[in-house]
Amino acid sequence: MKTQLLDGRQLGKALTDRIRQELELAGIKPGLAVVLVGDNEASKLYVGSKQKKAQELGMRSFLHRLPADISEDELLGEIEMLSGRDDVHGILVQLPLPSHMDPYRVQQHIPPAKDVDGLNPFNQGALVLGRPTLVPCTPLGILYLLSAYGIPLEGKHAVIVGRSAIVGKPMALLLLEMNASVSVCHSKTKDLGLHTIQADIVVAAVGRPGLIQKTQIKEGATVVDVGQNRLETGRLVGDADLDGLMGHAGFLTPIPGGVGPMTVALLMWNTLLAFLLQEKPKAVRLPMLEGIHERLFGHLNLPLVP
Ligand code: NDP
Fold first, then answer.
1. Shortest-distance atom of ligand 1 to CA 258
2. What's residue 130's pLDDT?
3. Gap between the Cα atoms of 94 and 242, Å rounded
4. pLDDT band at 276 (very low <50, low <70, confident <90, very high)
């Protein structure tokens, strides 16, 4: 069987090129503020690529670096300050946070309309209720990728491995929105392979290299590998045995160049959407909101906020 790789790098670039053109045409400059607490090396890299992309697209990009020993209340104060700024349309607090902070409390402080990571309880609730607006970027990027490659979702069986609020759960909800039948597995699931072997689509979001093997995947199935694991050799690998799956899976995301670039691209989309949601009351460019959404996401059947 020939395996087709899902090229997130190329698709992410096509989407961000489109966003850059829209911003230029409309003469608007959405602002994205990224808050980084502490010195986590991986977080610094992620934050750097998000900032770089925002700048490339002509957005305003602000980085707020805070020491790891800052108190939770001080972080909340920083978020409140950013929330009140007119030039900041999207706020993203890079995870993970130091262990003395409660991520739920922190996400709750980001106003829903500026919550470009889609982790505020309001936005997560809107997704549960079938009215997604600002949705976590990684699952939204995966949905965009599957859709762009014409992979059918309706009536298909999707198995999600991992149930985090930022990947697994919203992924399951988005696929439900697309009329797939969804199973969610996690660390307490007994015999993971028994579930994944039945799936037309497997999304692995765990953080364990080699967890998903060829023997656990139906021939011709789609495997989306979200995991990002840095081996001692320095090589970046996912959760699935990609070499073993070549020639067995129907579609497969590579690492690097699969899900990662889609996450960054959809963060840019969410920042644009946040801008439009906030500027909407000023009504200068209201038709653009629906126009852009329709052109970029109409086929995904994702409604905008009413
Ligand atoms: P979390 O640690 O929050 O969640 C991991 C999930 O995996 C949990 O639900 C856990 O179950 C489950 N799990 C752990 N061990 C097993 C196992 N043996 N079998 C089945 N399930 C298991 O991670 P995230 O969701 O934040 O991230 C997951 C991976 O995706 C990481 O490698 C991360 O780096 C990567 N990532 C990549 C992104 C990208 O853009 N490419 C973006 C975001 C994340 P339980 O709930 O029971 O503990």
1. 41
2. 84
3. 28
4. confident
Question: In CATH terms, are 30-110 and 137-259 the same topology?
Answer: yes
Kindly list the domain boundaries of the chain, sorted by start residue: 30-110, 137-259
| CATH number belonging to domain 137-259 | 3.40.50.720
**Looking at ligand 1, which residue's alpha carbon is closest to its atom 5?**
206
Q: Which residues line ligand 1 (CB under 6 A)?
A: 138, 161-164, 166-168, 185-189, 192, 205-208, 211, 226-229, 259-260, 263
pLDDT average, residue stretch 68-75 = 98
Q: Is 46 helix (H, G, I), strand (E, B) or coil?
A: helix
* Ligand 1 centroid, distance to 186 Cα (angstroms): 9
Let me know if 50 is a catalytic residue: yes
Indicate if 188 belongs to the active site.
no
Q: Which atom of ligand 1 is nearest to the CA of 238?
A: 32
Q: Which residues does 258 contact at the CB level (< 8 Å), separation at least 6?
A: 5, 6, 7, 8, 145, 224, 225, 238
d(CA 208, CA 223): 15
CATH entry, 30-110, from 3.50.50.60, 3.40.50.10860, 2.130.10.10, 3.30.559.30? 3.40.50.10860
Q: Active-site residue among 50, 53, 114, 169?
A: 50
Tens of pLDDT along 158-205? 999 999 999 999 999 999 988 999 999 999 999 999 999 999 999 999
